[in-house]
């Protein structure tokens, strides 16, 4: 009998680039990293999760949660980035798990809705430990978790998309963006006049703050402009403007969930209705505009490259914005990333690393971000105030519906898929900006559209603010 040991054959893990061959055993430098949680992609993906919460076995999760809860209740939760991750990931994982327990409606955005509004509701009820609230709000605002998340998605999505798609989709994007703004302002003004709410009031107090794509270009500067025109205080207008924005954001999330549910149907309602995440209907030559399939495996080094690229693009965007404040830093970052992709300034392995880093962040941190946004930006009192005026509700819902339908139709006319164009720029124009984009795209299961969403908010929001400044003199004193 031969005693020769069997020959061991080493195979390269799928998804590793040619320059990412496994290193010497034990180094871990090129060890494969699977971006999945069990049989599903990502912790927030709709579907049954069994007894795994936040991708951990339930008993382990309960121990983790107990440790963090005890620290928060006793006021001993450290105010640091790690504590922010602990609170948001544990609470977000639990709410996603609860939402996924309900068949059918989980496909229409229930997990996202729970993550978006339950934490704010717990704060309103006074049952959220104050220590946890302070930690999370610092985590999102002071420590820049929102920037961390959005930059990963912007860099990864742009550098990971086909160059032909970026070149052909960009110019066409102006058609649904500008068109939905014109239609929404005109129709809401007319509806306000018919119902007695007022033509200019409908535009300036409903359509304008909602369509500004966020609070920074919406409720905050608009309240100052209206106060200057009427001689009142900005705080007098802030409540109504905030109510419109928050209420519209809820409607946007619900409609995004409906689009996601409709997208799961095999039958198209009409030609070009649903692109299943693909923005354009024009495919180009030999699939040059098709989004490449996601890799099943990545590597530690590849993910590190992606983190570095996202960080440098973020710094570059903020640096230029200091000297050229005409655009938001996010907008400059988008332009830089697009230029890098269009002119092929990075090697393929760096583009792949950026794309894989964005995929990883989107796979595991969406619930955490939604919880952080809920605890930092959403005021349940404002939400309750917005439901006290029936006409206010009607005009707010009508604004979102008009925006998404006109954007979808106009996008379809310029060879976009209806659903994708209806989501961005349509719903994205009407949500609360960066945080709202995450909730809407998550509910629609189309997080990779984040670059177009960010571009919509920054450029479209600036356009809305400019138009609003021209209309303010028509507001009654």
Write a structural description.
This protein is an all-alpha fold and 477 residues long. It is globular, with a radius of gyration of 23 Å. The longest helix is centred in the middle third of the chain and has 33 residues. The chain has a two-stranded antiparallel ribbon with strand order 1-4. It folds into 2 domains: 109 residues, no CATH class; 330 residues, no CATH class. The protein is built from 18 helices and 4 strands. Strand 2 and strand 3 form a beta hairpin.
Fraction in beta strands: under 5%
> With helices defined by DSSP (H or I, 4 residues minimum), what is the helix count?
18
Determine Rg (CA atoms, Å): 23 Å
Helix fraction by DSSP (H/I, runs of at least 4): 55-70%
CA-CA gap between termini: 101 Å
Tell me, what's the shape?
globular
Give the strand line-up of the largest sheet: 1-4
How many domains is the backbone divided into? 2
The residue ranges in which pLDDT falls below 50 over 5 or more consecutive positions are 1-35
Structural class: mainly alpha
What series of H and E elements makes up the topology? EEEHHHHHHHHHEHHHHHHHHH
Main sheet overview: 2 strands, antiparallel
Average the pLDDT over all residues and give the rounded result: 81
Number of DSSP E strands: 4
């Amino acid at each position: 009998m031969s005693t020769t040991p069997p020959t061991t054959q080493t195979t390269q893990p799928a998804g590793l680039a040619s320059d990412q061959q496994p290193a010497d055993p034990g180094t871990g430098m090129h060890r494969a990293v699977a971006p999945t949680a069990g049989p599903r992609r990502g912790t927030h993906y709709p579907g049954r999760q069994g007894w795994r919460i936040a991708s951990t076995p339930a008993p382990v999760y309960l121990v983790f949660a107990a440790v963090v809860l005890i620290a928060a209740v006793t006021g001993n939760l450290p105010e640091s980035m790690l504590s922010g991750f602990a609170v948001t990931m544990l609470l977000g994982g639990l709410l996603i798990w609860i939402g996924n327990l309900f068949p059918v409606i989980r496909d229409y955005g229930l997990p996202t809705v729970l993550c978006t509004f339950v934490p704010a509701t717990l704060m309103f009820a006074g049952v959220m430990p104050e220590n946890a609230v302070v930690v999370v709000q610092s985590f999102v605002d002071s420590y820049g978790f929102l920037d961390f998340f959005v930059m990963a998605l912007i860099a990864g999505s742009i550098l990971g998309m086909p160059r032909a798609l970026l070149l052909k989709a960009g110019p066409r994007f102006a058609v649904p963006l500008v068109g939905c703004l014109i239609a929404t302002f005109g129709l809401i003004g007319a509806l306000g006049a018919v119902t007695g709410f007022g033509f200019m009031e409908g535009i300036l107090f409903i359509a304008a703050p909602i369509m500004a794509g966020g609070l920074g270009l919406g409720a905050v500067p608009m309240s100052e402009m209206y106060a200057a025109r009427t001689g009142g205080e900005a705080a007098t207008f802030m409540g109504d403007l905030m109510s419109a924005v928050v209420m519209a954001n809820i409607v946007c999330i619900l409609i995004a969930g409906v689009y996601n549910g409709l997208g799961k149907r095999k039958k198209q309602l009409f030609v070009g209705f649903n692109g299943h995440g693909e923005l354009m209907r024009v495919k180009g030559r030999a699939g040059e505009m098709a989004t490449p399939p996601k890799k099943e495996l990545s590597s530690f080094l590849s993910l590190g490259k992606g983190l570095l690229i996202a960080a440098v693009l973020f710094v570059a965007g903020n640096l230029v914005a200091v000297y050229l404040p005409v655009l938001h830093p996010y907008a400059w970052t988008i332009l830089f990333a697009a230029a890098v992709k269009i002119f092929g300034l990075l090697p393929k392995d760096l583009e792949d690393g950026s794309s894989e880093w964005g995929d990883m962040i989107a796979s595991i941190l969406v619930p955490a971000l939604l919880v952080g946004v809920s605890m930092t930006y959403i005021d349940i009192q404002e939400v309750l105030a917005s439901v006290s005026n029936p006409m206010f509700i009607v005009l707010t819902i009508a604004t979102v519906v008009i925006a998404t339908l006109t954007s979808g139709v106009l996008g379809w006319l310029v060879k976009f898929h209806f659903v994708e164009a209806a989501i961005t720029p349509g719903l994205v124009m009407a949500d609360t900006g960066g945080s709202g984009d995450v909730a809407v795209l998550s509910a629609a299961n189309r997080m990779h559209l984040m670059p177009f969403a960010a571009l919509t908010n920054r450029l479209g929001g600036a356009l809305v603010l400019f138009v609003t400044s021209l209309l303010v003199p028509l507001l009654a004193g």
